Structures are given as C-alpha cells and as structure tokens.
Amino acid sequence: MTDSSSNDTDTHRLVAQRKEKLQAWRDQGHAFPNDFRPDALAGDLQRAHADDDADTLDAAGKEVAIAGRLLAKRVMGKLSFATLQDRSGRIQLFMQRDLLGEDAYKAFKQLDIGDIVGIKGPLSRTNKGELSVRASQWQLLTKSLRPLPEKWHGLSDTEARYRQRYVDLIMHPDSRAVFLARSAIVRGVRDFFEARGFLEVETPMLQAIPGGAAAKPFVTHYNALDHDFYLRVAPELYLKRLVVGGLEKVFELNRNFRNEGVSTRHNPEFTMLEFYQAYADYHVLMDEIEALFRELSAKVFEKHSGACNEQSVRFDAPFERLSMRDAVLKYNENIDAQAIDDKASLISAAEAAGVRGKDEWGHGKWLTELFEETVEHRLEQPTFVIDYPAEVSPLARRRDDNPDVTERFELFVAGREIANGFSELNDAEDQAERFRAQSEAKAAGDDEAMYFDADYVNALEYGLPPTAGAGIGIDRLVMLLTGRSAIRDVLLFPQLRPQGVPNE
C-alpha cells in the first residue's frame, strides 16, 4: 500500500470516529449550539496581562469568556492543558477535574484537535509562567469532523495550501499575518486618499467595450441584451469620464480581469488602485506615490512586523527618476546615445539581448522591449522610469518639447512594476487618432490592442481638464511590503487549475 493510500485510509477512519462522537452529541441535544458569547480575545489578553504575575492575576480574579479552535491538548489524569486559537492569537487552557466536575472533565477529554469550543473562567498563570484561562465551564460549539494535518509545509504541500486556504490559515500564523497586513494596507490606501480630498467611487466591471489598458479581456454573453460583454481590464476610461463630469479627484479600489497567463507575479483576477486628479501632471502624482509608499511602509512595518520579511528596499530616501532612454543607456554599457536614437542600431541591440520583434514595430516599441528585457529586473530600489514612447502609451499626454514621448511613468521596486501613471491625454482629436491606430493593430491580430471607444472620445469633446492619473497593483504592493515572492501568497483564493483537469 502506498503512503498516499495509507494516509487516505487513516483519514477515513478518523472521520468515522468523529462522526460517531458528533452523533452522541446530537443524541444529547448538544450539537452546534449558538448561545455562547465571548467577551475577550486571546491576543488581547496576552498583551494586556503580559506583565501580571500569578499573584496579581489570582487577586484580580478576572473572569473571561473566550471561544476558538483547539490546536493542542495534553491530558494528565485530574488536569489537562490545551491550546485555543482565535482570530487574534493563542492562549492556554487549564482544565481541572475538581473545578469542572467529573462529567464535564470526562467529556472534555473526548474532544478532538480542531474542535471549536467556548471557555469561561478566571485568568491565571501556571508554574511555568504561561498565561492561562482556568476553566470553570466549557461548551462544544462545533465538532470538527476532519482532522487537521500534523504537518502542513514544504514544496509538496504548496498547492494544497492555496487550494485549502482555510486549513492554511488555521495552521500557519504567518499566513494569517500576511492577510492582516493586506487589510491594513488597503485601509491605509483609503485613509491616504480620503485625507487628501479624493472621492472613492465604483465603476462598471461588466463593460460593452474594454478599455484603459493593453490587455486581452475575458468575454461573456449578456442574455438579456443578446450582446457580448467584457470583464474590465481597467477602470481608467470611466474614472476620467467622472473627471469630465466635475469629480476632480477620484479613486477606485477594485478588481480587474485580464485573460493572460498565471505566474508568480500574475493572476487573471487582481486588485488595482487607480486615482485621477485634475490640474495635476505626472510629477505631482510621483510625489504623491512616494508619500503613499512611505506612509504605508511605516504603518505596516510598525503594526504587522510579523508579516514582513527583512528587506533591503529603502522607502525613506527620494525615489530615483530616469527616462526610459537614460535607463537603457545606464544599464547597457554596450549601447551609446547615438546607437539608441538610430532605429537600425536599436533593433540590432535589442535582438542581441533576446528581443524577437515584429516588422510593424516602431522605434518606441523596440526601445520599450529592450528596456523590459535588460533593465526592469535590475531596478531594486524604488525607481520611477519616465517619458515612455508615445507608441506604447495610447492614453498618455505627449511632452510639449518632444512629441515622440509621453508624460508617463512606471514605478519599479525590487525588479517589479508596482505603479503606472501619466499626464492624461485630453485632446479629443489626438485620442481618436490613437484609438484608430490601436484598432488597426487589433485588426492585424494584436489581441491586447485597445478598442475604439467612441463614447470616451465624445466625453473628451466636452472637455477634460488637465489631469493626471495612476494605477497601483495592490497585490504586488502587498507582496513588496510583506516580502512575499509569489502573488498567490497574498491572495486568499488564487486562481488554480481545477482539480482533475490535466495540463495541456
């Protein structure tokens, strides 16, 4: 018999035993009660009484009611110890026959690891100095039918942790800490923008025309209208419509969907922050993003240090700002300024670096591909790469002194793109021309090219004030601040291949 089949047999046996115990509780009318109300949390008690010795706790005689899951149990004749975990942390339970009574103590010994219980009693400290609840009464709230794993780690279990996140969260405090930190990061983002007068809004996720990013959308059919719709790839064009309407500072925190590959940095469903500000340019936005990152990192590291790995990234120093052209020159010593401005020389350098291009690519596209191939992964400290070619920036405003490039930036940290922003294109005629170029590229087979959005051009014709906007990938931001290398580690339920479906 293989180890796997042996483990399955053991699990079936344990589940059957637990179901027998549950039936006994049903017969007594005690199964799944909902009348226990905790008044304390394990973690709060640990912090509040960290300096209280046994005499102080005994003199206070503070009674508490706590509830949570049993993670460990040690039965020793007339007394037992157990570990209870709730959402805030863990605390020891001191279970004594003389205090509980014979029947209650005997029933407690029949509990299984994973059962959810309610406990009432005074706080005390054991001879070994462990803060404990000395139980005067207890109640089984939920019978756990499936045993918790004894070991839940290692590469062989990585996918199981993602598929059964509920077990991962039970067994791994560090995993729960990441998601507590994620919640704090999202809350911090909201606080930052609301304090600066931005209005949080919601825009459609189901769109007749996908726009705002160069990405392949998911397609669905809307039966009521008998028309294909798309899950949004970005909220950008709707948010800028709101600026046209007079909502001059807006932001949205919500989901985007892109029908692309899955990797350590990509999930087809992801959370994005986008914000837009009238009467601002891309320099203003870079300043705001620097301030946001400093504020978030300080708060997260202070309150959620357990979720954060040691990092060499510095957020307290000014972020470097390099044009894409200068970044390529800085990190490619074999390319000089004359060669980078000559298309034939640029193509030669890009192909030597491994870029495989297309005949229709212009100078700007070749430069961008060379940058992505040779520079991105080397940008360890926070760096704004600015002045992207107009050819790859269909929604960004051209620079007045050089119409071949745009007032656009991307922020890179630890070799990853974290943010993308630009001074917005508010020339309706220029925008229409760029949409036409994108439509031609789509007709030529580019699945990620943008559609022509006539209504958005119509909105621009009413007048979009000078505006700047940016997007920040929240999942990558959480990865950065918690030191995680895989996006699945910061998503509660990452996208996975359905079980039983073979790889193609």
TrEMBL record:
Protein family membership: Belongs to the class-II aminoacyl-tRNA synthetase family.
Keyword annotations from UniProtKB, A to Z: Aminoacyl-tRNA synthetase, ATP-binding, Cytoplasm, Ligase, Magnesium, Metal-binding, Nucleotide-binding, Protein biosynthesis
Keyword Signal: no
Entry binding sites for Mg(2+) 2: E417
Top-level taxonomy: Bacteria, Pseudomonadati, Pseudomonadota, Gammaproteobacteria, Salinisphaerales
Protein name: Lysine--tRNA ligase
The protein's assembly and partners: Homodimer.
Transmembrane segments: none
PROSITE patterns listed in its UniProt record: AA_TRNA_LIGASE_II
A Pfam family assignment: tRNA_anti-codon
Annotated localization: Cytoplasm
Gene that this polypeptide is encoded by: lysS
CDD domains the record matches: LysRS_core, LysRS_N
PANTHER family linked: LYSINE--TRNA LIGASE, CHLOROPLASTIC_MITOCHONDRIAL, LYSYL-TRNA SYNTHETASE
Top-level taxon in the UniProt lineage: Bacteria
Record-listed Mg(2+) 1 binding positions: E410, E417
InterPro entries given in the database record: Aa-tRNA-synt_II (IPR004364), aa-tRNA-synth_II (IPR006195), aa-tRNA-synth_II/BPL/LPL (IPR045864), Lys-tRNA-ligase_II (IPR002313), Lys-tRNA-ligase_II_N (IPR044136), Lys-tRNA-synth_II_C (IPR018149), NA-bd_OB-fold (IPR012340), NA-bd_OB_tRNA (IPR004365)
GO molecular function, one term: lysine-tRNA ligase activity
